[in-house]
Amino acid sequence: MPTQSRLSVNVNAVAMLRNRRDLPWPSVTDLAAIAMQSGAKGITVHPRPDERHIRRTDVFDLANLIAERFPGKELCLEGYPTEDFLRLVEASKPTQVLYVPDDPEQTTSDHGWDFAKDGSLIADAVATAKSWGIRTSLFVDPNPSQPELAAKAGAERIEIYTGPYGATYGDIAAAQRELDLVVETAEAAQAAGLAVNAGHDLTVDNLPPLIARAPYISEVSIGHGFTADALIYGFAESVRRFRRSLGEDA
What we know:
Elements: E1 7-10, H1 12-18, H2 28-37, E2 42-45, H3 56-69, E3 74-79, H4 83-92, E4 96-99, H5 115-131, E5 135-140, H6 146-152, E6 157-161, H7 163-166, H8 172-191, E7 195-199, H9 207-213, E8 219-222, H10 224-233, H11 235-245
Parallel strand pairs: 1-2, 1-8, 2-3, 3-4, 4-5, 5-6, 6-7, 7-8
């Protein structure tokens, strides 16, 4: 039997390219379909208030695509828990919501939650999504103290911010230090009863060392590195390349 994939393809960059023109291509849904047909477990999107890449309409189009053509695949909706974002989550019913502490002007998610400052906001947002039957995940820094705080907030998963690890390409010693922190955080999450996701600047080169040390990781969300790969190899082959880097049949 084929191995169940851990790869969720983030299609924000596809939407950003489409938005450069008043045209319907490249199609977010068509490329998402290719990714899932090629073995990805699902699709991740981060709709921002200014819709600079993913639009609200894309969220519903992707939810419908999965419901109609890819039952069993997953949609992960990522965002800061504003009232508008929570309404979108409730209306679109993704499989998973990933809460991130982003300022609307940020170009990408680049840090985890400050539980001391935002604990009440986080706990309320988690409880709200769970009341709708949606799996909850919290974006955390690679720091072993964070998973216990996420568990106390009621989350079912964390997503470890792997940007510092991804930034160490070309520096073996630094990569080892950052990988140690990611793995220690993942182990702390397991000890706290949480499932573990990971995301940010993961590539076919830096995934194998991570998965070798943390084979229990449930999901990796990959956008920038995947899109860069797809410009060379195409969407379908890039899914297969990333799945092989995860040790999966592809």
